[in-house]
Amino acid sequence: MEIRIERATEDQYTALYSIMALAGEHMHRALELSHWHPFPGTDRFIPRLEGRNIYAVYADELLVGTFNISTLPEPYYTDDMSNYWMDTSADASYFSGFALLPSHQQMGIGTHCMQFVDKTVQQETDHHYIRFDAVASHTKLLQFYSRLGYEQRGELPVGKLAVMCYEKDLTK
Hints:
Elements: E1 3-7, H1 13-31, H2 42-48, E2 53-59, E3 62-70, E4 92-100, H3 109-124, E5 129-135, H4 139-147, E6 151-158, E7 161-169
Parallel strand pairs: 4-5
Antiparallel strand pairs: 1-2, 2-3, 3-4, 5-7, 6-7
């Protein structure tokens, strides 16, 4: 299988939205996780993409996933993230909105995407860190990120949910 990642265009946003909504439905049904269920409507989703570098992930010629890399932290990150990030004053890239079609999970595509993120941030920015979060109760996903060298920095409460903050120091 050939995996290709490219910058998404606005005409792909609806398809990317569908992938995220399907991933949310899958997590809800298969894993009893409801953080992406029900998935917000396109009227809330599309505007959130502004200011972010959105990527489309292809397996062979089929669009199977999406993620974004941004200098914008998540809106729920607090003003004081010193309990979660090693150096809050350091420039960082933020990774979010990662979704793969359920039919294309567990095939190495996620690993390929994360390697792409590392390489892209190193080559295109002078940022020292990649930061993101994952639902703290999604054990399999937390193991995946840890296995790829992202360090757990602590659980951040977000409403009724807890997310595990992750960070990778690119200077090491």
